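Sat 14:20. Reprocessing the chain from the morning session after the first attempt stalled halfway. Input below, unchanged.
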Amino acid sequence: MTDELDRLSNSRAPAPSTDARARALAAAMQAFEAPENNPENNSATTQGTRNGRRQSSIINWIWSPIMNRKLLAGSALATLLVVPAAAFLTLELTRNNLPVTKPDVEVAGGELPKKTSPKVESKSEALTEAPALEQKAKQAAAKPVTAQEQSRVSPEPEIAEVQPDALADIDATASGAQPQREEALSADAAAPIGALSRTRQITTGMAQEAMPAPSFLPSDILMPQEENRDRFSSEDTNPVKSVITDPVSTFSADVDTASYSFVRKALFAGALPDKDSVRVEEMINYFPYDWSGPQSEAEPFKATVKLMPTPWNPNTRLMHIGIKGYDVVPAAQPRANLVFLIDVSGSMDEPDKLPLLKSAFRLLVEKLKADDTVSIVTYAGNAGTVLEPTKVKDKQKILSAIDTLQPGGSTAGAQGIEAAYALAQSAFVKDGVNRVMLATDGDFNVGPSSDDDLKTMIEQKRKGGIFLSVLGFGRGNYNDALMQTLAQNGNGTAAYIDTLAEAQKSLVEEAGSSLFPIAKDVKFQVEFNPAQIAEYRLIGYETRALKREDFNNDRVDAGDIGSGHRVTAIYEVTPKGSPATLNDDLRYQAAKAPEAVATRQAQGGELAFLKIRYKKPDSDTSTLITTPVTEENAVPTLDAASADARFSIAVAAFGQKLRGTDAVSTYPYGSILDLAAGAKGDDPYGYRAEFLNLVRLAKSLSGE
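Finished this time. Tokens:
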């Protein structure tokens, strides 16, 4: 017998014939398709089992008998006892890496696609669908089950029915795609937190693989939140000043808009912004206003001043100053020599950073003229030149260089700036625009130079005719304080790009004002008449404050105004004798009152005197413009003011509210919304409509 076994073990099995395989396959298909075996091509009895039941996990083996007991079915006791026990058992099995088989899910209209990883509904979809799924479950429980259906029911827990359209959403969410911010936000705001407990988790995949038990909460809630390392300069809000002791207010022009974009991104993410990130003047100046402008280039800009009642305080008035720069026609724009200094460090590897940055610069290239020049420098560990100075007429070469950018490495920002300035100098355009455009998330965490060294270098290059603008991207790592400092010292603007639409606005629609300055070192100074005005408060411009003596000092740097730029400044002033006066009269200044009355009469009832000092782009000597402010500049009611003025006041109120300014603490978001809605006016790009949504979001998030 042993010899026979040895002989058989050493022999080879005969090769199967083609006919034999064909007969075997035909027999198997005939048995499979036989109606008596399975009308739907699935055997009622799973193959490979002795007792004729489906294979199931240990969880289902324990779960099903309990849930099928009449004593517990449908009772509150089942929820209190069984669900915690099942959750604990699932946790233990998962922690010990024991396999948990997937549930069988029947899909209306088709089968689940085979995947190899669990898929979970996005939070916004789960919240909005939970009530509907719960209703379906109740209806299904109340419906009688036929004998034919009973024979096909698995003893496993019931899973909510999934529609084919939902599967695409689940896959998109699991693969990292984010839902649109408006839809996600509205869903989160509409659903109470308690709705999370009703969320049905839908899983796919698991073909021949073990899967950890799904969590009872959406994955984005369970994942630990990354530390927020955004950095902002902390400045005290401008105080109320007495005209008797401080009659003069001096500040630098500011046309940056970064704060508004950052506030918008925070609100759309479902959180009130950091108070230090709110710069009210940048929010006001984000919007285009139709202020009256100059008629010729000889007069770079014109000031429009209006007095009107204060909506949040009936005992004060607003002095509204609007400046518009001369709009240079495109044919007259000077040649541009631009260097794109792009951060490609590892921290830029996020959808709203480097990918958005590349799309933004592609938009800018399309805006430039054929004889303009573009260079590209990157920095990550070490600086590198990606593109030597190239004419825009060779556009495809520039766009291809942008497309090749990939993230990786640490951030040596100082080396990158040095390399960028060297390229700008090599392609310097006399009487043209020479500008480095720094695009980064602000993380200068590696570099041989300190922040002070960087500022010193930028100031020196500015004096040589090469300016610096900053484009910020992303959240969680943004060094806003440094970006603001670099832009201000580089005679440039600071913008924050949170969407491609914002890139279109900043780099295309406002390219002239951003790239082509018509005046530099623009300073404002207002002197108030103590006979008419008791107190005043400048709204915003905390980071742009200047000393009184700086106004006439041409060596002191200030802000620039570009082609067609608009600058808006608003003072809240308290008339003499108003009950809103906060400061007592000075004991030893009363004797000067007759002199003040005589001064007011001699000056024809002036309330204030506005002075603007500026330099032309190619000059180091300033020019002065003056405008007296009298009652002729006043409007009797707020409704009598222009729509642009009223809308800018609504934005000013909103910014102060977000910043926590005491003056508007009792002025509700609802009133701000009404004021802005009534002054929306013509809104071709939808900026003002978006602002109304931001006010609504802030109102909801504040719980007001």
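Residues 76-95 form the longest helix (20 residues).
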